UniProtKB/TrEMBL annotation:
UniProt KW Oxidoreductase keyword: yes
Family: Belongs to the aldehyde dehydrogenase family.
Protein name: N-succinylglutamate 5-semialdehyde dehydrogenase
CDD domains referenced in this protein's UniProt entry, alphabetically: ALDH_SGSD_AstD (cd07095)
Gene name for this UniProt entry: astD
Keywords noted in UniProt: Arginine metabolism, NAD, Oxidoreductase
NCBIfam families: arg_catab_astD, PRK09457.1
Protein species of origin: Sphingomonas hankookensis
Length: 469
């Protein structure tokens, strides 16, 4: 039986191994469990989710340890990921009530119109590796509250975290048939996505995969497809007196999680006169960033990227940007022979007319110096993605212009591009999503509305257009 092995990026040690799952078996199990779960009262499902939150809380340290080891992210950051898994439950309960619960609408005499929502059935969830618990959980919890059953395939790079998450659902009394774990890679992902017996797919991952899935789902408009994809996110720094604070926001935006966030800033757009002093501040901060293994003491700011292949691709991308005319401001370097620890790379692309509009998923920031705010906006919008964008400037009028003109689903002011709230909708436009935002709005894609005109008495008359008897 083929096996999947999970390796700790920081050390190369084997963390977990397990057999690749069978797609048909998992879907059949979920199909079997679904009707029973959907017919339970909402209060029952909510109680089950609250028990799940308690189970996760009681296992928070081992959970954070697995996330940290498997992704390489610092332990402090893995702990915040576990906290978001817990917090997701109450947020999703509120979101369900607000966005997809029952309502009675105005209607003519003797009748009523009721709005209710129904679950889709069996939903497939495909997860990414960068938030291997929080992001799939952001689909799974709302899906279960709405009454769906779920087949969850974690990233092939983070199966241990996926298995831990599913075990927490089962330990909290969610029937094993309602949340199924499918271990596997892209092949299993494809088989799951194309299986005739799923009712929809909730995906978080790269735009490349999302586009392939969108194509595949073109033949099945009856199935729900929610795509949360990547970004090529801009951060503009303009007319700000506090360059240190601006530098902190840029560094947090670009290099938190070793740049492995879909909301990470990939492009710094700065007014020309501020560029040198701002970059000097950023450089000084980068010198001080601790890069180390997840459990190191003192705690690192960031760990390695996910694996050596990703690290190789990022260093090659850095070289390719400089070959195309970019001017390296900080070289991206491998810190430890044979392990994927990278130093932040910063490259000035201002004089390069050709822009490669791709998401470089790691600690790599491109810089663009511009002369006017109009140029800054044009540069910021010079992308087919549209996930997050930030303006760093004390000027509210500039923020008004930025807000009105920037094309993104998350538009921030004097805040990092990342760190989005689970209590708000989360999603982007362009290649960043398919207009089915997640987080607070995940409730919307986990259920469909059913409108019923209802009257208890069988009473009817045709008032117009009848001949006398
Ligand atoms: N917008 C958002 O909410 C977020 C987006 N991301 C994006 O995710 C990416 C990083 O995650 P990755 O794991 O590298 O993404 P990925 O697209 O490589 O993989 C995501 C999942 O899809 C599966 N998969 C891969 N190819 C497939 C195919 N052809 N058919 C079906 N399934 C397939 C993988 O096994 C994995 O479970 C980045 O691009 C990042 O921006 C990450 C987190 C949040
Ligand atoms: O999905 C949610 O509950 C909120 C969105 C969220 O957590 N965003 C994070 C991480 C997403 C990523 O970049 O992979 C963020 O904006 O930093």
């Amino acid at each position: 039986m083929p096996e999947l092995v999970s390796t700790e990026p920081a050390t190369g040690a084997t963390l977990w191994r397990g057999p690749v799952g069978n797609v048909d078996t998992e879907i059949a199990a979920a199909r079997g469990g679904w009707a029973g779960w959907a017919s339970r009262p909402l209060a029952y499902r909510i109680e089950a989710m609250r028990r799940f939150a308690n189970v996760v809380r009681s296992r928070s340290e081992p959970f954070a340890d697995i996330i940290a080891r498997e992704t390489g992210k610092p332990l402090w950051e893995a702990r915040t990921e576990v906290e978001t898994v817990v917090a997701k439950v109450e947020i999703s309960i509120s979101a369900y009530a607000e966005r997809t619960s029952q309502r009675r609408l105005e209607s003519p005499m003797n009748a009523r119109t009721a709005l209710r929502h129904k679950p889709h059935g069996v939903l497939a969830v495909l997860g990414p590796y960068n938030f291997p618990a929080h992001l799939p959980n952001g689909h799974i919890v709302p899906a279960l509250i709405a009454g769906n059953a779920v087949v969850f395939k974690p990233s092939e790079k983070t199966p241990a975290t996926g298995a831990f998450l599913v075990e927490c659902f089962h330990a909290s009394g969610v029937p094993e048939d309602c949340v199924r774990l499918l271990i596997g890679g892209p092949d299993e992902g494809r088989a799951l996505a194309s299986h005739p017996d799923i009712d929809g797919l909730l995906f978080t991952g790269s735009s490349r995969t999302g586009i392939a899935l969108n194509r595949q789902f073109a033949e099945t408009p009856d199935k729900i497809l929610a795509l949360e994809m990547g970004g090529n996110n801009p951060i503009i720094v303009w007319n700000t007196p506090d360059l240190y604070a601006a530098a902190v926001l840029v560094v947090q935006s670009a290099f938190t999680s070793a740049g492995q966030r879909c909301t990470a800033a990939r492009r710094l757009i700065v007014e020309r006169r501020l560029a040198e002093p701002l970059l000097a501040e950023i450089n000084r901060l980068c010198e001080r960033l601790i890069i180390g293994e997840p459990h190191a003491d003192p705690a690192p700011f960031m760990g390695p990227v996910i694996d050596n292949e990703a690290a190789d691709q990022l260093t090659e991308s850095f070289l390719s940007l400089s070959a195309r005319g970019g001017r390296p401001l900080r070289f991206m370097q491998r810190l430890v022979e044979g392990r994927p620890f990278l130093t932040p790379g910063i490259i000035d692309m201002s004089d390069t007319p050709e822009r490669a509009d791709v998401e470089l998923f790691g600690p790599l920031l491109q810089v663009f110096r511009v002369d006017s705010f109009d140029d800054a906006l044009a540069e910021a919008n010079n992308t087919r993605y549209g996930l997050s964008a930030s303006l760093i400037s004390p000027d509210p009028q500039l923020y008004d212009r930025f807000w009105a003109n920037i094309r993104a689903g998350i538009v921030n002011w004097n805040r990092p591009t990342n760190g989005a709230s689970s209590g708000a909708p989360f999603g982007g436009i362009g290649l960043s999503g398919n207009h089915r935002p997640s987080a607070y709005y995940a409730a919307d894609y986990c259920a469909y509305p059913v409108v019923s005109a209802e009257a208890e008495q069988v009473r009817a008359s045709i008032g117009i257009g009848l001949r006398n008897q």
